[in-house]
Amino acid sequence: MTTGSDPDLGRVCEIIIFGGTGDLALRKLIPALYFLELDRRLPADTRIIGVSRREMKSDAYRKLVAERAREHLPTQDFREDEWKRFLKKFSFCRVDAEVAADYRGLSRHLGPAGDGVRVFYLATLPELYAEICQYMDDAGLVNAETRVVLEKPLGHDLQSALAINEAVGQVFGEDQVFRIDHYLGKETVQNLMALRFGNAIFEPLWRAAHIDYVEISVTETIGVEDRGDYYDSSGAMRDMVQNHLLQLLCLTAMEPPVRFEQHAVRNEKMKVLQALRPIRGEAVKTRTVRGQYTASVVSGREVPAYYFEEGVAPESNTETFVALRLEVDSWRWSGTPFYLRTGKRLARRFSEIVVHFKPVAHQIFDPDGGVHAGNRLVIQLQPEEGIELMLNTKIPGKGMALRPVPLDLNLAHAFKRRRWDAYERLLLDVLRGDSTLFMRKDEIETAWAWIDPIIEGWQAHYQQPKLYKAGTMGPDRANELIERDGFRWHENLVQ
User: Rounded to 5 degrees, what angle do the CA atoms 17, 23, 26 make?
Assistant: First the structure.
């Protein structure tokens, strides 16, 4: 082990990135690896190999990394001498993922595996996962110390997810497969578990008896950008709900694991997915909302309707917004609804979990003296990461008039240090062989088994997307979905 490197990593030698010239690699993965290098988390002899079908020499690849990945490093965190040392770790190997013979060239480029760990990061189309894994195995690139990272989406439905998992499983053991969801690497998501299981004041209240409802939102102001071709065949349900939102739901609703250990944590997440009440047939009419954005003027700029975006089919009925009313059929959550929503071209960009506690059983203060709402716990994931607890407090000089006021934990203020990007944490966990924050095979398949009937119900009952103007918070039906139960979305509550 090289002096100064992470003592938990052991024999880390090579990180091979399929799709090494792509946006994900240059924008997220390589900057994350740079920061691991900066923090002395990587052994000095670690090699990083970019792989794609482009014709390129290693020097040209290092130049590409220097130009493109450098753009995504904050100026205050950049160290010229460290960057030059980091670039020396890089090389490039041309591989067409669908040509078996090219993998023999990759094998020659890598050389003997020895006793080091090889991590293959597949930042490619999921349709290529099975083929890549099989060809790597045929070329002798896989052994007991090899790990493979799979980016979302893992499949298009349950059948395709089963096929991918089976094909990958023929080459790699389950403990070698890391199905990544970058939301699980966010500090605030992990703080959700610390908040629940590390503080005695919350766990006794974290149940239906004390919680009215929970909302989980992941909203974006951008449209489909340059992903029109992919997005039009996927939609918000497959792109966001099946992975990001259901994973956040699992962490919010799970039972305390016996210990913070990968199998124990993932077992409890799995139980939440198994407890989700199915939404089938005509239930999609009352428990789900589909939406699609139309043209509008946002911040003084005209933006097109979804079906006029590049790569999108004319008159496409793909949803760009989804809202769901879920129920978790368990002792802890019986009777407490969960509301999930996600969408593009909305008024605000934010990701948050809001836990709405029930109001006090008997109100002793004048009902006309101010807001008497239940307490709210707001866990903010982006654009800023933080935790707010909304408490009803007395307004100075107004008798006993009350107003909700936040107790605010801002991570940037509380910890005077650079916050890790989600990919930094997750890549380090891959190198350590810790799969706690990754999705297990049965989680993926159970999530798809719950999602598929909703999509089928939309088709069977002609649930066309409800239109909403770009720059709003989605179709009116999304408000009706939650207001039907006497609740409101967080941004609509009186502050």
Answer: 60
**With contact defined as beta carbons under 8 Å apart, do 402 and 394 qualify?**
yes
> Can you tell me the distance from the alpha carbon of 100 to that of 205, in angstroms, rounded to the nearest whole number?
56
Is 194 in contact with 387 (CB distance < 8 Å)? no
Neighbouring C-beta atoms of residue 449, cutoff 10 Å: 17
pLDDT of residue 442: 96
Query: What's the maximum distance between 2 C-alpha atoms anywhere in the chain?
Result: 80
> Which tokens hold the place of 281?
């047939």
Reported as a single tens digit per residue, the pLDDT across 113-160 is 767 789 999 999 899 999 999 999 999 999 988 999 999 889 999 999
AA letter at 420: W
- pLDDT value, residue 366: 67
- Considering only 76-85, 153-162, 286-295, which range has the smallest mean pLDDT? 76-85
Q: Please, what is the angle between helix 187-197 and helix 246-253, to 10°?
A: 20
Please compute Rg for the chain using Cα positions. 24
pLDDT score recorded for residue 417: 62
Distance CA 155, CA 150 (A): 11
Q: DSSP per residue over 181-230, as a string? A: -GGGGSHHHHHHHHHHHS-TTTGGGSSTTTEEEEEEEEE-SS--TT-HHH
pLDDT surpasses 60 at 10: no
CB-based contacts of 302: which residues, under 8 Å, 6+ apart? 295, 296
Does the pTM of the predicted model rise above 0.85? yes
Q: How far apart are the first and last CA of the chain?
A: 54
User: Strand, helix or coil at 321?
Assistant: strand
Which one of the listed residues 244, 263, 413, 461 is annotated catalytic?
Answer: 244
Q: What is the dihedral of CA 359, 364, 365, 366, to 10 degrees?
A: 110
According to DSSP, the β-strands at 288-294 and 211-219 are: unpaired
Reported as a single tens digit per residue, the pLDDT across 383-417 is 888 888 888 777 777 667 777 777 776 666 666 56
Q: Which helix (H) or strand (E) holds 343?
A: strand 337-343
Identify the three-state secondary structure at position 93: strand
- Quick one: tokens of 33? 């690896």
Task: Report helix, strand or coil for 236.
Answer: helix
- Is 109 catalytic? The answer is no
Structure tokens at 471: 């720059």
> Among all chains, which residue has been given the structure tokens 């090289």?
2
Q: Do you find a cis peptide bond into 383, omega within 30 degrees of 0? A: yes
Buried b vs exposed e over 143-155: b needs ≥16 C-beta within 10 Å? Answer: eebbbbbbbbbbb
